[in-house]
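[Protein data]
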Amino acid sequence: MPLAHFLVSGLSIVLIDLVLAGDNALVIALAVRALPREQRRIGIVCGAGLAVLLRIVLTLAAARLLVLPFLKLAGGLLVLWIAAKVLIDVSEHHERTRAPGRFWEAIWYITAADLTMSVDNILAIAGASNGNVGLIVFGLGLSIPFVIFSSNLLSKLMDRYPILIYLGVAILGKVAGDMIVGDPFLIEKLHPSPLAHYVVDAILIAAVLTTGTLIGRRRRKKSANPG
């Protein structure tokens, strides 16, 4: 690969990382929010690092990911579950949570959601790299500091401004809707229109906010009145 082409491809990958890392950082920030503060940074680094290692493997087979049915559907449902779980956890005190269990639970959420949400990122980097394994590793490795920095910043802002949790959950509802409607199987069978995208996004945003809030409120009442 000529040097100029190599440099252009590298710059393209950097821009792709900057543009597409936001949703992944939001998922990570919400997933680690229930952890004690001293464990959050460890959870973010471990989750993001593991997800990127798996992404490198998947990127080498990126052409198959584009048409793999049910991947985005499953990922969208997982993102919905994470979003609802965040609102449910808001009702619990951090000191009452089981830190070891929550830590590995957060790592699982981060890894699974990051992989399923990153199909577009993986395909974009694979395309920009023109199959160059070195550029693929560079691009995905570069995403780690972007995501870690953004996740740390978002988790701190959520502690300071709790309303951002609900905004983040609403954004995840939209991300889940886009993933579900964009699944190759559903596109082939239902041919959803742009209007259908907006309707599904709106329904899922309302559903996850309502469900998470109601279950969290019920748990809070139950813990306040254990008898």
About this structure: The first helix runs from residue 3 to 31. The CA atoms of residues 35 and 103 lie 7 Å apart. The chain has one domain: 3-224.
